Amino acid sequence: MFSTTAENFSKASTMVLRIGTDAHLYDDPDDVSISPLLDSKFDSEKCEALKRLLALIAQGLDVSNYFPQVVKNVASQSLEVKKLVYLYLLHYAERRPNEALLSINIFQRDLGDQNPLVRAWALRTMAGIRLHVISPLVLVAVRKCARDPSVYVRKCAANALPKLHDLRLEENATAIVEIIGILLNDNSPGVVGAAAAAFASVCPNNLPLIGRNYKRLCEILPDVEEWGQIILIGILLRYVIARHGLAKESIMASLGPDIFNSEKSGSESDSSYLEIKKTYEIGIQEPELLAMVSRSYLAGQDKYLSHLDNSDVISSENISSQFTSSKNDENVKILLQCTSPLLWSTNSAVVLAAAGVHWIMSPVEEVSKIVKPLLFLLRSSDASKYVVLCNIQVFAKVMPSLFGPHIEDFFISSSDAYQVKSLKLEILSSIATDASISLIFQEFQDYVRDPDRRFAADTVAAIGLCAKRNPKVATTCVEGLLALTSPKSINSTSGSMDDDAVVLIQAITSIKDIIKQDPTNHEKAIIFLIRNLDAIKVPVARALIVWLVGEYNSLGTVIPKMVPIILKFLARGFPSESIETKHQILNAAVKVILHFKGEDFHTARSILSYVLELAKFDLNYDVRDRARVLRKLLSCYFISNGLEENADNNEIQLLLAEHIFREKIKQSTEMVNNRFYLPGSLSQIVFHAAPGYEPLPEPCSLTESDMVKGLEEPSQTEDSNSDVDSRSLNEEGSYYTEDSVTASTGADNESAAIESGNNNADPLINFSDVGKPQEETNDLSELMSKGALESWLDENDNPGSSQNVAGIDSNASISSARISIGDISTRIKPKVYTLLDPTYGNGLKVVYKYSSEASTISPSLVTVDIFFENCSPDPMSKLSLTNEDSESLDQGSSLEPQKDVPSFVPMEEITILEPGQTIKRVIHVNFHHHLLPLKLILWCNDKNHPVKLRPDIGYFIKPLIMDLDVFSQKESQLPGMFEYTRRCSYTDHLAELANDDKDGSESSTKDSFLIICQSLASKMLSNANLHLVSVNMPVDANLNDASGLCLRFSGEILSSSFPCLISVTLDGKCFEPLNVSVKINCEETVFGLNLLNRIVNFLSEPQLTS
Amino acid sequence: MLQCIFLLSDSGEVMLEKQLTGHRVDRSICAWFWDQSLSQPHSFKVLPVIASPTHYLFQIVREGITFLACTQVEMPPLMGIEFLCRVADVLSDYLGGLNEDVIKDNFVIVYELLDEMIDNGFPLTTEPNILRDMIAPPNIVSKMLSVVTGNTSNVSDTLPGATSSCVPWRTTQLKHANNDVYVNLVEEMDTIINSDGVLVKCEIFGVVEVNSHLSGIPDLTLSFANPSILNDVQFHPCVRFRPWESEKLLSFVPPDGLFKLMSYRVKKLRNTPIYVKPQMSSESGTCRLSVMVGIRNDPGKVVDSVSVQFQLPHCVSSANLTANHGTVNILSDKTCSWSIGRIPKDKAPQMSGTLVLEEGVEELHVKPTFQVGFKIMGAALSGLKINKLDLKNLPTPAHKGFRAQTEAGHYEVRS
């Protein structure tokens, strides 16, 4: 009762509708201060603030500055607050990675919550914030959730895997695939569907994983959720083809008799061959097209296209592919059985996917099963109607008989969109048979009168197409089309002129095409058109008719008599014709003259010279030029034919004339340039291979031994090479390479090579136990708070630049010139840091600088030069440096790698330091790859001073000598997430340029580019231990515009010996502050990011000493 | 997989963006999309799959709202389109219709729904029954409550049991005071009559709608008296395939509330209930038009809401049309609609008049197509008959009801 009164109430006032909604929040999201609300202790106020933020996000504003405040609220107990925080967090986490890390502990806690909804949300959000640092934690969480009692949580775990994979961390790859394997084996169909989606996006080529569960997956398929079904169907199809090959009864296999003749198994295949031959004759009209379609579905399409013009080669090659039977093979049978009920699904995507399987695998006589479900889809939404029709179009072209009985489904309804109409027309014209053509023509007659003239023109084109395919009806078609061109049907008004002109032009074009097929039978049509020439005013249409006159001037008996009169008529009207008609009149006149003999020849010749004369003074240069060329060529031609006697013989001209007028140039054979993609794919709709599109695998490329191997090494992918050799090797089981076609597997490839190095290297952040699946959450949070991570965070002032500006430099080397900047070693002055100030050290001044020399003791040590200077009047004695802890005075233990605190190899003691004297000592420090300062005790005169030696990340690397080629090669191996870019401004060069101006005003000034490069290179090399690979400038560089200058540096991380590539690109004017974009490619991303920050910091920091 | 979903208003304003993966899509893609659709108004707006310079776009338009989804990699395009349709369905169900205001007013719910419906670009929970349990739809009671108490939460704090059940479309532990179930046959007739007056296509597109309010987990079996005419069907996921394949029985555990149990198509029908005969003849700048409507085959029930609608050709400058029954309206977009209502017994309704053509046009050589509407309650023109509905596994006996109706779908008469 209450609800009914409430409903009346709602009807009473529309204003009430907005009460209680969030309308005011969307309209004025920032009319109150959001910050205090976020800090409020009431959930409702927090909610309101978060909703306001959400409204701002919806409107496209950047509200990431609230991030720290929002993250705090992740701990809220209210689920609504949590949900809103998660929505916010997912939107911005990638931009604010440091603050996002603060939320990790809460996620860890929530993952252990009683409520499955809370667990699922925590997992979804944690995986969604995409931070490389926490990926090990996410992996553990996913592993745990994959065994969660709740189906929903397991489903979310499956969905989290692609997110994790997307970070492209190679160490996770195996684990991800393993979890997918577990989830594919799940009892709940919902989880299997999500796992299938994860499989398709993570490791689509790891088919052995499917092989383990193939039968079970088929059986569970009808129960899987619709979205999962779509993906799973595709995976199962790929597996069956790779494992068992194409079905020999299917359309794809009925390429032609050669295959079956060459098959070795005798009688059985013969009978099936006959059977197929029969259906093949009924069903398929264009075997070449079918061959092309089936080839393009399978892998190795490119090879096929290169052999396109030699179809024999293809079919003989095709013999080698192996076949299975859809009737006898259990595996194929079960797939077809389980996908058949899906043809009744209400989801059009599922129906189309299932239809695709049947199209490719089911026996020819059963393919018709897909027709009705496909046609039913035409009743679903307009959007899906278009996509379905695009797919039906291909099916109908290959096998017109399939849709032959259903022509009325393709009859056009006035509510159809234009694209849908034209697709239907195309399908109608390709499925038309002798029996149905009259019915179709009746329909076409109605369409021609459709108010949408563009569609009417398309119909006319379709009529032409039908006539070409069925020569029997050509005469009827031509008659119908001629009726359209008759003056009665042409509207002479200005309003609908343009629209009708389209139809008229199309009608004449269609007639022209039909006549071309069989000119002798359509003489009357030409005459009819010629007679109407006077009434037809549309220039293009006139030009077409004039072309017909020229082309068929000697056809039959009537036309040759008419031609001189027409030519005279045209010649008289020549000046008032449109340009294209003038062209055609010229052409026609020439064509006529070449055919005519005797009296007519002279008439024609005088007409031609008249026309040429007129053309000579035409306003249009194109017409003038054509006339000139024709005149010249014709005179040569007449000479060669002895029709005229005089003048200079020019071989080339003669040859040219001969070729043009004697039709020596062969018409290029018509290339069928249609490309076909798998049914239901995006590529088929957009007509190009979308990124990530893969054709079906090579039939039978997955052998028994692959299956076994695949189980051992699930991360490996299949070889899809299509060589015969590879197949034979496959059978021996010894050939096993990875597919390097796609980017993702390419990355796999590379990681495998580095893997060995990876194992013994010290990772930057050491989560030692993350691999264990049964990890407790508490332990993880402990791990999180251990020093390692935080020490990095301290240093990371502003890593918000982690967004990936890909490809900024990828083509910089294409058009650039190398600059040699000469020897700048004198200019490299490493920064000097103070260890002890003389005011605190009783006159002892100790400074240190990082040395670029490699340590003589161990390659992982950093060499530091320390300078002791006595600024006091008294000599000093017994100077030495020791570690802070007295225990570690023991030298032996100080270098043990398990200790995280930096340690160093002590230096020799300085026994005495005279006043004013400076002594240099070298120490070798092991920072353990952390940015923790080295705490030291400086002993002097038996007094101790605690000092800190601060690490410089620029010296955690050592120069790696390489040339530009190696550099670019390595760079291309480290794309995407291994690449980070930041920008800053650079001003140091200004002072130098100013100096240069002063100094060298009389002599030739140095090149300003050189100065900039030198200044930048010396700054880089003074602050980081790098090797300068090259300095490039763009070829088309302008004076004073330094844009495009590119300096490349390379280094090698001391602890892990990973290469680290740095490119510095300049932008801006020479005499202004420059914009510098620094890009780092480094496998160790966290290190790379920190180094990048360091470089940007010192580059933008102005030079202190001039 | 989908990377981003945008909701655009009918003026091209981006009302909402929901990034789905780490590869974020800048909303400038919407500006590109809108520019394109303005520059090519007719063809572009209906193209559901568009390759933009940076992304592939899927779009559907519902009641003026454009749902735009972006991806950069290969994925089944129908999956994207179907998902957008599902989003549109769910939103319009939640918000009671779709328009710019209602989406802006309830943007939080829209966000919450989208977040639940799709995870990392792959659909997560799209079953309306489960969604309703997770996120409460806004209704007037909750709105008033929220104003009074200040409590605005519409997010459920427990996971619906249906997510883990083997019948995920059904809410668990349902209790209804009155157990009842209604089965409706709703049929649409698609017809094309060509300019010669020949019936070239006549088919029925029907839906078996079930409105179920039953407690517990009931098991229903629906059988037809003449199932042989059903050979072109689509089923709700709840229908079991085996009984249909073997005995043409619909055996299912229904979701709660109204849903489409099955859709079917019956082709090649021979008769239409009414006739519409247009006649046009034009000479010297005017065109005489007359349209006659009448009952052809009496279906035994009242033919109601009869209407005829057509688009005047471009070259018509003015029209003067009158009818002896019903009203004729000519709208500004040159749509002429004649609403007849119920066809009278004593006379045949006729509309006639003249169309004045534009200056210089002598004859009308394009012919409009007439769209016919009608509605017949109580009859399924396909002839499909329900035999019986068996209910099992019910605590108390339930009330059953059956109805049928036929409407005109794409019913077109060409002149």
From TrEMBL, chain A:
It is found in: Cytoplasmic vesicle, Clathrin-coated vesicle membrane; Golgi apparatus. Residues 710-779, 879-900 are annotated as: Disordered. Gene3D superfamilies: Leucine-rich Repeat Variant. It is a peripheral membrane protein. Residues 737-748, 879-896 have a biased composition (Polar residues). Keywords: Cytoplasmic vesicle, Golgi apparatus, Membrane, Phosphoprotein, Protein transport, Transport. GO terms for biological process: intracellular protein transport; vesicle-mediated transport. SUPFAM superfamilies: ARM repeat. InterPro entries: AP3_beta, AP3B1/2_C, AP3B_C, AP_beta, ARM-like, ARM-type_fold, Clathrin/coatomer_adapt-like_N. GO terms for cellular component: AP-3 adaptor complex; clathrin-coated vesicle membrane; Golgi apparatus. It comes from the Eukaryota. Residues 785-932 form the AP-3 complex subunit beta C-terminal domain. Pfam families: Adaptin_N, AP3B1_C, AP3B1_C_2. Belongs to the adaptor complexes large subunit family. Subunit of non-clathrin- and clathrin-associated adaptor protein complex 3 (AP-3) that plays a role in protein sorting in the late-Golgi/trans-Golgi network (TGN) and/or endosomes. The AP complexes mediate both the recruitment of clathrin to membranes and the recognition of sorting signals within the cytosolic tails of transmembrane cargo molecules. AP-3 appears to be involved in the sorting of a subset of transmembrane proteins targeted to lysosomes and lysosome-related organelles. PANTHER family: ADAPTOR COMPLEX SUBUNIT BETA FAMILY MEMBER (PTHR11134). This is AP-3 complex subunit beta.
Automatic annotation (TrEMBL), chain B:
The keyword ATP-binding does not apply. CDD domains: AP-3_Mu3_Cterm, AP3_Mu_N. Keywords: Membrane, Protein transport, Transport. InterPro entries: Adaptor_comp_med_subunit (IPR050431), AP2_Mu_C_sf (IPR036168), Clathrin_mu (IPR001392), Longin-like_dom_sf (IPR011012), MHD (IPR028565). One of its GO terms (biological process) is intracellular protein transport. Residues 178-414 form the MHD domain. GO terms for cellular component: clathrin adaptor complex; endomembrane system. Belongs to the adaptor complexes medium subunit family. This is MHD domain-containing protein. It comes from Tagetes erecta (African marigold). The lineage of its organism: Eukaryota, Viridiplantae, Streptophyta, Embryophyta, Tracheophyta.
